[in-house]
Amino acid sequence: MKEKMKKNNKEKVEIKKICKLRQNMIEILSLIIEVIEKDENSLNYIKDKLISLKEILAFENKENFRWGLNFVRETLKRRIKCLEKGESKNEKMP
Amino acid sequence: MKKCRKIAYIPISPQIILNMLKKGGTLEAKGLPEDCKYVLSQYDCIRDLFLIAIESKSFECIKEGERIPEIEDITLSYAPLEVNELKEGISKILSILVEIIKIKEKENKKDSKEALRTLKDSISTLITTLSHKELLEVKTGLIFNEEYLKSLLNISKRLNKK
Predict the structure, then answer these.
(1) Cβ separation of B105 and A43 shorter than 8 Å?
(2) pLDDT of res. B39
(3) What are phi and psi for residue A10, nearest 5 degrees?
(4) Average pLDDT over residues B92-110
(5) What is the pLDDT of residues B104-138, one digit of tens each?
(6) Segment B39-51, tens digit of pLDDT
(7) Can you give the pTM of this predicted structure?
(8) Who among A22, A37, A61 is closest to B130 (CB)?
(9) Across the interface, do A25 and B82 touch by the CB < 8 Å criterion?
C-alpha cells in the first residue's frame, strides 16, 4: 500500500513537471508570436531568442533551466512593452 | 590522539536508482561542495538507503568512532525521461526553425516578411501541439511537426541552391 502510494506520488510529480514545461514553453512561444506581430523587423531578434531557448532546454541544472526560461520570458515581455509604447526606433531594445 | 576526517554521507534511496534504470533520467544533488571527493559507500539496511561518503574541506571534522553526519540540505531530484524527451523534441524543432530562418534570410535579405510568416505559422503549430490534453498526442504532434519542418527545410535548401 505504502509503495503504491509512493509510486502514485512520483507519477504525480512527473506529470506536474511535464505540465510545467509545456506551460512555460507555450507562454514563451506565445510571447514570440506577439513580438513577430508587433515588429516586422524582428527576424534576427527571434532567431537569437530561439537559439537561447534551445540552449536553455539543454541545461541539466534545474535552477539554471528555470532561471533561463524566466530570463527569456521577461526579456520578451519587456520587448513587447517597448514595442507597444512605440519606442522601437528611439530606445535600445532588451 | 584520534584521527579525524572531514566527511559526510549522502543518503540515496534505491527506489530512485531503480526508477532511473527503468526510465532513464538524471539525478541532481543540490548543495554539494565543489571540492567533494568520493570516499566509500555503505548500505543502511534499517532505513533501506545507500550512503555515499564524501570528503570536503567545508565539512566538520569527524573523529574515529564518531557518527558520520548526513547532508541534510541535499535534494535529489529525478528528472524523468518523459520530460527530457519533451525537451529534446522541442529543441529539435527549434533547431530546424533556426536553420529555416537562416536560409530564408539568404533568399531575401531585404524582405524578412515571408520568413517571419513561416516562423509565426510554425510556432503557432508548436503551441497547438503542446496544448494537447494527452501527452501521447503531444509526443506524436512533436514528431509530425519535426518531420514537416524537415521537409520544409529541405525544400528551402533546394530552392536556395537554384
Answers:
(1) yes
(2) 93
(3) -65, -40
(4) 84
(5) 877 766 667 888 888 899 999 999 999 988 888 88
(6) 999 999 998 889 9
(7) 0.65
(8) A22
(9) no
Non-local CB neighbours of A63 within 8 Å, separated by 6+ positions = B30
Burial of B84 (0-12, 13-18, 19+ CB in 10 A): middle
Nearest to A36 among B78, B116, B130 (CB): B116
pLDDT of amino acid B41: 93
Whole-angstrom CA distances from B143 to A2, B96, B140, B150 are 37, 13, 5, 10
Q: Do A37 and B87 touch (CB under 8 A)?
A: no
Are A26 and B130 in contact by the 8 Å Cβ rule? The answer is: yes
Domain boundaries, chain A: 2-85
For the record, the C-alpha cell of B14 comes out as: 534505491
Burial letters A13-45, b for 16+ CB under 10 A, else e: ebeebbeebbebbbebbebbbbbbeebeebbeb
Task: Give the whole-angstrom CA distance, residue A26 versus residue B161.
Answer: 34
Please answer yes or no on whether B112 and A41 come within 8 Å at the CB atom.
Answer: yes
Question: B98 and A41 in contact by Cβ < 8 A?
Answer: no
Chain A residues at the B interface, defined by Cβ less than 8 Å, are 6, 10, 14, 17-18, 21-22, 25-26, 29-30, 32-33, 36-37, 40-43, 46-47, 50-51, 53-54, 57-58, 60-63
